[in-house]
Design goal:
Elements lengths: L5 H13 L5 H17 L11 H18 L7 E5 L7 H7 L4 E5 L3 H14 L4 E4 L3 H5 L8 E7 L4 H8 L3 E11 L3 H7 L1 H6 L2 E10 L5 E9 L13 H4 L4
């Protein structure tokens, strides 16, 4: 096999397995993004993978699974909580150009990487927010302004409930990407979900091309989040709601 085209073959196979149809331009952007992630790893930790093939099979596939399982409404406002290297926000922004993506990260280095990447990929539907989630959730510019909140490898579910739900419109959904321990986390987060106005509505189980099990939990915001949530910086993580 020609090594030069292997990433394209891997990506085509992943997209096929997901049941998606993507234009060549979007595929090219996904591959370019993987290359930028690998280059960024020389300066800071953005992900645990160190090859384009691994990024496709473990990260890109994971990020795009919700596109397979549900329809994101046109013009949806989506915020990626603790975006880090842009996972899952950037792959979704590439595949959902009709949606508006906001990538939130408090790390100045990671936010700088996100800005450079968005510029390199010429993604016009992406904004970067350099801020802590607690502060965004208490800011009227962001509180209850989003249709979807995404969270991948950020915190345990009880913490995420307090950080994510204040950002959602009533009727909006939080999308929690989790692994095998997700069920235990969601049980521990039951009270936090209720207090912050959310209700677990759907569980999506799937397997990565590498054989690893993954779960996505969909949490709908059913009532307004009380004004005291989220608590101030650091408190949700230090003292999760129990």
């Amino acid at each position: 096999m020609n090594q030069a085209i292997k990433p394209e073959i891997v990506l085509n196979e992943a997209i096929k397995n997901l049941g998606l149809t993507l234009e060549e331009q979007k595929k090219g952007l996904l591959l370019e993004y993987c290359s930028l992630l690998l280059a960024g790893l020389k300066k800071q930790r953005l992900t645990g993978e160190n090859s384009i093939e691994d990024l496709i099979n473990r990260q890109i596939y994971d990020c795009l699974f919700p596109v397979k399982s549900r329809s994101f409404e046109k013009n949806s406002r989506i915020i990626d909580l603790g975006s880090g290297g842009g996972l899952p926000g950037i792959p979704l922004a590439i595949c959902l150009p009709e949606c508006k993506l906001f990538l939130l990260d408090a790390s100045q280095k990671k936010a700088a990487f996100l800005e450079e990447t968005v510029h390199s990929l010429e993604l016009k539907n992406v904004n970067i927010i350099r801020e802590r989630a607690e502060n965004c959730g208490r800011d009227s510019a962001y509180r209850e302004k989003f249709d979807y909140v995404l969270s991948k490898a950020v915190a345990k579910a009880a913490v995420l409930a307090e950080l994510a739900l204040p950002l959602l419109f009533p009727g909006g959904k939080a999308v929690f990407y989790k692994g095998p321990r997700g069920e235990q986390e969601m049980k521990a987060a039951a009270r936090a979900l209720t207090l912050c106005g959310g209700k677990l509505t759907e569980r999506l189980d799937y397997t990565l091309p590498t054989g690893e099990k993954r779960v996505i939990y969909m949490v709908e915001k059913v009532v307004l989040t009380p004004a005291q949530y989220p608590r101030t910086e650091g408190k949700p993580a230090r003292r999760p709601i129990k």
